[in-house]
Amino acid sequence: MGVKTQSCVLFLWMYTLTFVKSQECTLEQFVTGPMFDSNYDITNLAATYPAGEQVRVGCNVGYSGFFKLMCVQGNWESKGKACELRSCGHPGEADSADFHLEKGEDFVFGSQVVYTCQKGYQMVSRSNIRRCLAAGWDGVVPVCEARQCPPIDVDDNVQVVGNPEEAAYGNVLRFSCKSRDKILSGSQELYCDENGAWNGKAPICEEITCTVPNIQNGFVNGNVDKYKENEYLSFRCNPSYKAGDGKPSKCVKSGIRANWSPTPLCKPIVCELPLGSQEGTQYEPVSTNVFSPGETVRVTCGNKYWIDNRLIKSAEITCKENGEWNLRPVCQEVTCSNQKPQHVDNWGVPWRGRITLDETARYSCVKDYKKPVGFDLATCTREGWTPNPLCQACRKMTFLVICVSMLPFAIQPYGFFMCLFCFSVKGRCSGSDVLNGIVAGPYNDVYYTACREGYKRFTKGWWATAECKNGKWSGLEDCIANTTCGKLPEIFNGGVTQRPRHKKKFQITCNTGDGVLVKDLTCSEGEWLSNGLPPQTICASTAKSCNPPPKVENSIIKASYQREYFSDSEVTYQCRDNYMMEGQGKMICKDGQWMENIITCTPYCDKLRDESMTFTADKEIYLNEEFIRYRCDINNLEGIATCVNTKWNKTRECEGKKRCKYLPQCNNTIEHRWGTKSTVLALSKRKKLKQKALVKKHLEKPIFISLDSLDCGSPPFLTNGDTTETSRSDYKHDEKVHYSCKAYHTLEGGPYRTCKNGKWIGEMKCLKPCTVDEEAMRSHNIRFRHKPDDKLYSVHLEWIGFTCTSGTSHVGTIGMRQMCVDGVMLLPTCQ
C-alpha cells in the first residue's frame, strides 16, 4: 500500500513538471518567429521565460521604439511598435550658407549633411559636415563669414564714404573730391566682390581740365592738349561746315566730371526756313525747308503783310555762303505806329496798342490845327497813317465866347444839378462840348462827362472825367449810339483788323503759335459777337505748352508760379541752404515736355564747431553720412558726430567747460560764496543729508571743513540698465556701484558711479539697439543685403547693408548702408 502511494505521487509530480515546462516561452521562439527584427537588442534576454512573464525588448543603438513580449501558454504575444531609426531633428541653419543631405534620406541616425557657404562667403569652421549619431547631431553649425577685401589706399584729397580699411563682400565705397576745385578721375564707386577683391582702383582728384575733343568735320587750333576750367576751346570747321552752336565751348565742371559746354561740333552749312506755318507767309518750293548756299526760295506774303519793305508782298531770297538768307524769310504784318502824331491832341490809340492795315482811329487836332477836309478818322495804310498829315495848320484867331446855362442833369447815382459850360477862351481848351453828351464842371479843375439817353461812351463806363491843361484836353470823348459798337475788345495773344468793305466785321488774327477758334468779330445791335467766347480764349495756343516744371527735392524755382509754360520757356532751380547743386540747374520746355536734365540737391553739413569737445575737422563741408570722432573735454568720453540731412547727429552731448570750485591747496573740501561773504555748509553726521541739518555760518573769510563724512543715498536710476548687485539705501564716501545695460544695449561711459562728497558722480548711458522688421522694409521696398529677412536687432554703431527688392531702384539721399545710432537707423527707399 505504501509503495503504490509513493509511485502515484512521483507520477503526479513529473506530470506537473512536464506540463509547466510545456507552458514556457523561449528566446529561440522569438528570434525565429515573425515578430523578430534585426534592430532589436536581445543581448540581455534569457533563454526561457515562464508563462505569464512580460519582457521588454530594447532597440539597437541608433534606433528607438516601444516593444513588449508576453509569454502566454508557451507562445509570445507582442505589444507596442517595432524599432525605428532615431531622428536627430533639423541640423540647424547657418547664416550665409546652404546644406544638403549627403547620406540618408531624412534627418535620422546615420544620415550626414554638408554645409556650403553662399557666394561671397567663406567657411571659417574646421568642419562643414554634421552627422546624426545616437546622441544627436555631432559638432556645431558651421560659420561662414563674408570674404574680406584688403585695405585700399585713398589719397588725402579724396573724400570716401564707407570703411576702406575693413570691408567685406558687398560693401560699397563712394568717392568724391573734398575740394570743389577738383574733379574725380576714376570710378565714383567701388565694391568688394565675391572673391574678396575690389572691382577697381581708388580714384584720385585732379585739377578741372578738359581734353582736346575729336571734332568731326573740324579741327582744334594750336597744340594745346588740355584746357583748364572756364577756358574756351578754339576750333574751326572744314569748308562747307559751320559751328553747331552760336555759343563758344567752355570747359566746365558738370557733376563729378569736366565737359565742354556746349559740345563742340561742326554741321553742314545750310539755310533753313522756319518750321511750321508762318502767319501770312508762303514758300515755293514747299517740299523742303533746308537749302544749300546759292539756292533760292520765293516768298509770297498775304494781303496785310510785307517782305523787304512795306510796299512789297513777294520776293526771291537766296541762301548765302555763310548759311544766312539775304532777306529774313518771314513776312511782316503791316502796322502803324501807336505814337501820337505831330499836332494831334486827342489820340484814340492806346499807347500799347497794335495797329494793323486798314484799322482806323479817332483823333482831334490841337489848337490852331484842323483835320483835312473830308477826313474824320485816321486810317492805317502801307504808307503809314492817312491823311498825311493828320492835322493841318489854320489861321489863328483870338475871341471870347462864354455860354452859361443851368440845366437839370442827373448823373447816376449822385442825382444833383450841375452847371454846364461851353466856352472858348485864349489860353484855355477849345471845343469842350461832347457830341451827344454833356460836360459839367469844372470842379477842382476836373470836368465830368456823360452821354445823353440812347447813347454810350466809345470806351467802357457810363461816365468819365476830363481835364484841360496847358490848352489841351485829356479824357474828352464823344458819345455814340447804343446801337453802335464801341471799342474793339482786346484779344489775348492776338489782334483784330477790319475786313475790307465791311464796317461792322473784323478779322481776328492770332500771334505766331496760336490757332484761331473764332475768325471774325461782328457788330450787332451795339454788341461785339464772337460765338460766345470771351476774348481771352479766342486765340488758343497750338504750340504744346508744358505743365509746371517737375519738383526737385530741397530746391525752389527762381520765378513766379505759372499754370503753363510755352515752348522754349526756361526755368532755373536753386537749392535750399546747406544743399549743393548737382547738374546745370536749368530745364527747358520743348513741345509740351520738359527736357530731361538730372538736377539733384545734395545735403551737406557745415564744419562742426563746438567748444565743449575736441576733434579734427579738415574740411569746411561734409557730405551726408560722413562722420567725425570727438572727445568731450569735461569727462573725456568719446562720441561720433554724423552728418544727417544738413544737421550733425551726435551720439552724446558734451557739457560746457566748467571752472572747478575746489581750491588746490585744500583737498576734499568745498567752498560756496554768498554775496560778498563766504558760507560753509557743514552736514551733520547725525542728520546726514537732510536739509534741516545744514548749518550756515556767515564769515568774512572762507572756512574749509572736511567732507569725508558725507554719505550718499541710493544709486541713481539708469534707463535701460541697472546695478549688478542689490543696492543699499546709503553709501559711504568713495564707495562704487557697478552698472550694466539690458540685452542688446550698449553701455557708454562708466561702468561705475562713485559716491563723492555726498553726491554720485560718473556719467553713463545705455544706448538703445535698432530694430528693423519685415513690414518696415517692405514699405521701403528693401531687404537685408547679407541677413535673413526677419526681425533683426542691431546694436549701437553697427552697420547694416540693404539692397532693393526685385524691380525697384534706389531713390533719395539715404544710402543703402546705414549705422545704428542709439536706437535710430534711417531706412533707404527704393521705387
Automatic annotation (TrEMBL):
Xref: SUPFAM superfamilies: Complement control module/SCR domain
Disulfide cysteine pairs (residue numbers): 117-144, 149-192, 546-589, 712-755
Keywords: Disulfide bond, Signal, Sushi
Entries under PROSITE patterns matching the protein: SUSHI
InterPro entries attached to this UniProt entry: ComplSys_Reg/VirEntry_Med, Sushi/SCR/CCP_sf, Sushi_SCR_CCP_dom
Location(s) in or outside the cell: Virion
Domain Sushi stretches: 86-146, 147-207, 208-268, 269-333, 544-603, 710-768
Protein name: Sushi domain-containing protein
Organism per entry: Gasterosteus aculeatus aculeatus
